[in-house]
């Protein structure tokens, strides 16, 4: 036991406090002594550090884990149980007020943690039994105490191997109500929260982590937005303080990344991404990333640190842009500078590291190139591409694979812009007025009939419908139906028509390759059913896939 916890130290107390301390550690302290001690602790009237240090043995004994009530004892609270709960709460509050010596941590922690976890577990019940301090001050005080104790390496090792400590850290985070809370006490509280969640050695599932917040993913998303707002709307122009806000934002990002990737070993939770997106997180994320890129070019000494934060921002872009509304979310990212962030890294070695380059490559290949088939995204892509293209011409990409991916994106964008111009010139675009048969592709002003199977493609005649059915639609019809159902909220008639227009023109460009593959397929498998053709219009260059036609689909549905 550390010397500061020895009982002899209470002899250093003033006579009145010595009498109170002696009574408190006795088997049966009077209600008056309990009330007096509670008042001294909660009103922070221990105004002398020497007095507090002398009271440390009292706090230590009042927090004996053996005094924690068993669950069944809470059903009918006795006088002794209620007294132990009240004294332990006051002792904790005294420790939160007084920063105990870090070297006491290895002895104090086994007494502090069980009681803190007890109050967390039965917080709602205890709030109606005793006069608890407000949650925000209780948990922030606990985190400040932890921030002092971790200064001792042995204490830190004990604390970071404690089960469920990350859950308590999240609970402390949920007490934040405004952006300034993230930087309170010089940011020590938030850094402690981040360290417990990010560096804890205890096994933690996402469900366990959600125990720390009653609001689930929406609550967690709200907390991340507080860190964003702290950076976007600083209360001071002090550059040094602004950089601390950058660090707070980075901690919040790492908490989200850690929850979803490092611990769970699966893609980010779609529920968390949806909650973040609904609060405008994508816009804030891209604006912050773009501003940090500008800071990095102006502050060379901070380039590496800021590059890591930008990398964390980019890590979240792809998962945030998944799902039915992904293209709409991506449009927001493009409008606020996603392409500018990508290009800014062309001459930024600290930013284009191996893992970051892979993330950027995935964004270009899996998000930007596929989204060029969406009619409503082309204006935003064209505008952003023109803004950054001059810079691209003046620099040399520090990564050849990224340079190649960017080149493919530029080619795909120009090709789809050309299709858009032709689409506008040859059709009145009153709907999906484009024959789905790639042998025809008519857009003339005539009546079109819809496939009654999927209601997703239209034809100018039954002859075209029959040809298209044999060529590819037989295997595609059910998938087209599901695609249409899942994308109804985001695709208009004009956009559906544009997708079919791209398929028609890409089909003509690839006609020779399609026939070549069909001949080779038939030569190698003469006894199989006719092979169908699928043009993947989300790839660039366009790819062709051959697959067997299901035998059960012998006849085409009618058109109506």
Write out key terms for the chains shown.
560 residues, two-stranded antiparallel ribbon, two-stranded antiparallel sheet, 61% helix
Spans of at least 5 consecutive residues with low confidence: 261-266, 427-432, 549-555
Strand order of the largest sheet: 1-2
Question: What best-fitting shape do the alpha-carbon axes yield?
Answer: elongated
Largest sheet: 2 strands, antiparallel
SSE order, as H and E?
HHHHHHHHHHHHHHHHHHHHHEEHHHEE
Structural class: mainly alpha
Please tell me the total number of domains. Answer: 4
Q: How many distinct helices?
A: 24
Rg over alpha carbons:
32 Å
Number of DSSP E strands: 4
**Beta-strand fraction estimate:** under 5%
Mean pLDDT: 77
Helix percentage: 55-70%
Report how far apart the termini are: 86 Å
Keywords: Metal-binding, Zinc, Zinc-finger
Domain MYND-type: 437-477
GO molecular function, one term: zinc ion binding
Protein name: MYND-type domain-containing protein
Structure description:
The structure is a single chain. A two-stranded antiparallel sheet has the order 1-2. Residues 261-266, 427-432 and 549-555 have low confidence and may be disordered. Helix content is 61%, strand content 3%. α15 packs parallel to α17. The longest helix has 27 residues, at 400-426. It has four domains: 1-159, no CATH class; 166-279, no CATH class; 281-392, no CATH class; 449-548, no CATH class. It contains 24 helices and four strands. β1 (449-450) and β2 form a beta hairpin. It has 560 residues and is mainly alpha-helical.
